[in-house]
Amino acid sequence: MTAENGGGAFVIIYILSVILLALPIMAAEILIGKRGKQNPINSLRTLSNEASFYFKNQSDDLLNRTTRAKKRFEDIDIFSNWELIGWMGILAGILILSFYSVIAGWTISYIFKSLSGSFTLITAAGSSAKFESFISDPEKLILWHTIFMILTCYIVSRGIKSGIEKAIKFLIPGLFIILIGLAVYSSTLQGFSDAMNYFFIVDFEKINSSVILSAMSMAFFSLSIGMGSLMVYGSYLPDDTSVFQVSSAVAFSDTLVAILAGIIIFPIVFTYNLDPSAAGPGLIFQTLPIAFGAMDYGYFISTAFFILLFFAAITSSISLIEPAITFVVEKFSVTRIYATNILGFLTWFLGIFTVLSFNELSSFTIFGMTIFDNLDYLTSKIMLPLGGLLMALFVGYVMNRAIVKKELHANQGIIDTWFMIIKVFSPILLIIIFIQGIL
Q: Does pTM surpass 0.85?
């Protein structure tokens, strides 16, 4: 995203978007889960009923004054159907994972390609040919997509304590160790200075509406806002936990990983005179292997890099499917393994259409986009911003203010500022993102 949107111009807008837009709504989503203590759908339904109860009790005197006032209240029910946010978040998570797991499967394949030494002294033409050959083979893509989904489902099926928490305790420290090691290595490269200028120096002429909207959308996607996963994780928080502290820690860590990734990637690109604006997957799977093949210890560096990508991908995939599994387990009283198998298979099956959009169905388009591009567009440009908007409105205007203050565990000044952001500032920005996404 940084390479496609002007380097430092995108980075500064992204960081501002995380602080001013994504973080406040992230706190709202975690708060809903912390208060509801259930899956996203049931949490929203419970909190809607709770808010309705408080409001109606407080309004008894007003409603008893005139029949007209009572009828006006009955006609306008702002407490119904908010659980649809939960439904949309669960659907978004499944749709995202269906194509996310396909791309994530590529990282596993490239770990083995690196281990086999296939990047050694590879040329630009050779790297492109290798990538094109890879994505044009649906059987290989389905294989790696399947392996990635099996690993994800295995971790999730074992539950929060035995599965997700145990995996995260290994994967996250491992991710940071590899990140820091590769960042130290990149700092020794000849192109480090030019890369840091590209990555951190802002060219204000490159900031336009497209860059701003891309950065805002990326902040939502990166922090998993609007998918329901934050509600699920919030439901496990102890009552005395500060929502702001948790949200800030997660947002800071996530942004730190993104910054370190840039510090790793761009020095390699600049040192070997590669094109930093190579779009999306091309930068990772076509451009960087050229550099890995030319550098000293490239075999070791490239393997560590793709293991890093895999760690980042698997930890994200867990949170994408968890809300749906939690809902099915609570709603239908089935075992976690059964729910994981059903939803995992459904997600895997949907992913096959993404696989085919790179080869057999590459010429099939809807609104001028492939199946993969449509899924990416629908989720990141429409569903996530819309989900974030509705959650901000729900917490800001529907939930009882006294209950919200109680759950936040913060001083009055911070709470008042936060309320102003999610009631006014965030909805305006999210409506703009949503409309722009549709247009």
A: yes
